[in-house]
């Protein structure tokens, strides 16, 4: 998957993601009889109805996608047997498309939403101001997706608690906020995890893009002796005036994404606090310092021979004015600082709002069971430990995920249960849980239910008895178990009356 913001496809995927749709594939190859027929740029799923949407994105600067491209999408949806689609263009959409969309809805039952530049801007603005339900409603109404899930009072309370609207903060230039203060996407049962404290920090950085050409020429002939080109970016913390080292996470993030910064961003506080720091450095001073530094680093030395055949050295020291600067750009970088208070656990996560895969600190990422340290994929609903695949024990009845320590497990078949669905039957001897399927064997003598570790079969009558009613007797080297004195007596009689070989056969018999 490409990085967010890098392509038009990703922008559309992000809008869908922000409305709660799950991005399944980007792109998705459409195969038929072993051949690739084409692709769908994004495949998304509505988690409430499990409906899959196929998305086609056209980023054709200056050209307007029309009937041919629309028909292609219809064909791809039909190959995949999908009933829902989105046709998005970064510019305009041919005016023959709305009636076509109407037609395929009537004749083929295909629901295709058309998105042009104007509609996409509207959706992006919803996303920036965190009007998530508006985006969700937008797609649900237009696609005709009805959610079966009824909203509960619990949902209402949670929604109101979570969203406390506050100030709106304006930013002149900023990386867009694509990801919010949500629970991490790698936790599969993340529906009920809400951060208890979250701050969106907007920190200012100065990005200075420069290039410099230096050359040393022969003083007599003018022949080029040596040259050097230097071009790179320098990022300065616009609060302290410090140049960021190249291994700084913010340097890496900004270097990759600063060209995607947007102008005049306004973000409203909704259930989180915005902390915007203003720049307090003198930009001209900083640029002068950077030019001086780059000029000094790029001194070159070359050797040449004079007309009199003398070896001489030429030193070229570039002037600060030779360093060409593009910018500087003062860009705010959105960084989330989010805390989850869950039961007795506290987790902190800090990550970039532009790309939540770019994580600075993540206390949820590793499994916490017995210092396991594998990657987390779920969270225990009882103790809130983050857990890996190996340590997760979903309840066999309701599928709620628990950790190894919190799940109740049948001692015989190892099936797991949550507290609510925990079987009430236990082994009468060890008191460990026995599920319904495994609690079928009782002691012939005392009728106690036992697990397979605490019972034996009588060799004579084949019935089971519990540990405390076993009668064991040793025959040469092997111990035999009996349910009762009468079974032992019956076995004994036949044993004693058989010959040597019969005795042997009898004791090794299972
Ligand atoms: Zn647990
Ligand atoms: Zn683990
Ligand atoms: Zn359960
Ligand atoms: Zn069982
Ligand atoms: Zn037992
Ligand atoms: Zn018994
Ligand atoms: Zn018996």
Describe this structure in words.
- This protein is α+β, with helices and mostly antiparallel strands and 510 residues long.
- The longest helix is centred in the middle third of the chain and has 15 residues, at 283-297.
- Strands 9, 10, 12, 15, 16 and 17 form a six-stranded mixed β-sheet that branches. Strands 1-4-5-6-7 form a five-stranded mixed β-sheet, with helices on both faces. A two-stranded antiparallel ribbon has the order 2-3.
- It folds into four domains: 8-146, Trna Endonuclease, Chain: A, domain 1 (3-Layer(aba) Sandwich), CATH 3.40.1350.10; 162-365, no CATH class; 377-440, Herpes Virus-1 (2-Layer Sandwich), CATH 3.30.40; 452-508, no CATH class.
- α3 (97-108) links the parallel β6 (84-89) and β7 (111-115).
- 23% of the residues lie in helices and 32% in strands.
- It is built from ten helices and 25 strands.
- The protein binds zinc ion (ZN) (7 copies).
SSE topology sketch:
Layout: H1 8-18, E1 22-25, E2 28-32, E3 35-40, E4 42-45, E5 52-58, H2 67-79, E6 84-89, H3 97-108, E7 111-115, H4 117-128, H5 132-143, H6 153-162, E8 165-174, E9 197-217, E10 224-237, H7 249-257, E11 262-270, E12 273-276, H8 283-297, E13 300-305, E14 311-316, E15 324-342, E16 345-352, E17 359-362, E18 378-379, E19 386-387, E20 408-409, E21 416-417, E22 455-457, E23 464-466, E24 471-475, E25 478-482, H9 485-497, H10 500-508
Parallel strand pairs: 5-6, 6-7, 9-12
Antiparallel strand pairs: 1-4, 2-3, 4-5, 8-11, 9-10, 9-15, 13-14, 15-16, 16-17, 18-19, 20-21, 22-23, 24-25
This protein binds zinc ion (ZN) (7 copies).
């Amino acid at each position: 998957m490409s990085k967010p913001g890098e392509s038009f496809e990703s922008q559309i995927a992000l809008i869908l993601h922000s409305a709660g749709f799950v991005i399944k594939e980007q792109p998705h190859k459409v195969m038929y009889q072993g051949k690739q027929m084409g692709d769908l740029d994004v495949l998304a799923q509505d988690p409430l109805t499990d409906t899959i949407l196929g998305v086609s994105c056209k980023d054709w600067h200056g050209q307007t996608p029309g009937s041919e491209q629309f028909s292609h999408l219809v064909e791809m949806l039909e190959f995949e047997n999908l009933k829902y689609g989105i046709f998005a263009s970064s510019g305009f959409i041919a005016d023959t498309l709305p009636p076509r969309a109407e037609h395929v809805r009537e004749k083929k039952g295909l629901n295709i939403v058309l998105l042009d530049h104007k509609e996409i801007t509207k959706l992006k603005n919803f996303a920036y101001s965190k009007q998530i339900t508006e985006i969700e409603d937008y797609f649900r109404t237009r696609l005709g997706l009805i959610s079966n899930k009824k909203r509960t009072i619990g949902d209402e309370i949670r929604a109101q608690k979570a969203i406390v609207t506050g100030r709106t903060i304006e930013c002149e230039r900023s990386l867009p906020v694509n990801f919010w203060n949500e629970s991490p996407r790698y936790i599969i049962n993340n529906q009920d995890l809400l951060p208890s404290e979250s701050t969106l920090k907007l920190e200012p950085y100065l990005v200075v893009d420069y290039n410099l050409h230096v050359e040393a020429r022969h003083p007599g002939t003018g022949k080029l002796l040596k040259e050097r080109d230097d071009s790179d970016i320098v990022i300065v913390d616009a609060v302290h005036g410090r140049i960021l080292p190249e291994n700084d996470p913010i340097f890496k993030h900004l270097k990759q994404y600063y060209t995607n910064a947007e102008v005049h961003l306004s973000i409203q506080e909704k259930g989180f606090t915005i902390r915007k720091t203003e720049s307090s450095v003198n930009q001209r001073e900083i640029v002068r310092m950077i030019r001086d530094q780059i000029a000094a680093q790029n001194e070159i030395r070359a050797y040449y021979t004079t007309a009199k055949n003398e070896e001489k050295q030429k030193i070229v020291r570039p002037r600060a004015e030779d360093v060409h600067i593009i910018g500087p750009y003062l860009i705010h970088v959105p960084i989330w600082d989010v805390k989850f208070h869950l039961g007795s656990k506290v987790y902190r996560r800090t990550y970039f709002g532009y790309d939540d895969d770019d994580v600075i600190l993540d206390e949820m990422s590793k499994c916490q069971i017995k210092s396991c340290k594998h990657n987390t994929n779920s969270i225990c609903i009882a103790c809130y430990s983050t857990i890996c695949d190996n340590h997760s024990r979903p309840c066999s009845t309701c599928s709620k995920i628990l950790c190894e320590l919190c799940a109740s497990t049948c001692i015989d078949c190892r099936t797991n249960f949550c507290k609510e669905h925990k079987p009430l039957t236990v082994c009468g001897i060890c008191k460990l849980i026995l599920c319904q399927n495994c609690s079928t064997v009782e002691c012939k003598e005392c009728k106690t239910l036992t697990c397979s570790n605490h019972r034996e079969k009588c060799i004579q009558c084949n019935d089971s008895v519990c540990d405390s009613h076993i009668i064991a007797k040793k025959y040469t080297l092997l111990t035999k178990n009996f349910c009762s004195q009468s079974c032992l007596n019956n076995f004994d009689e036949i044993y004693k009356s058989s010959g040597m070989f019969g005795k042997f056969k009898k004791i090794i018999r299972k």
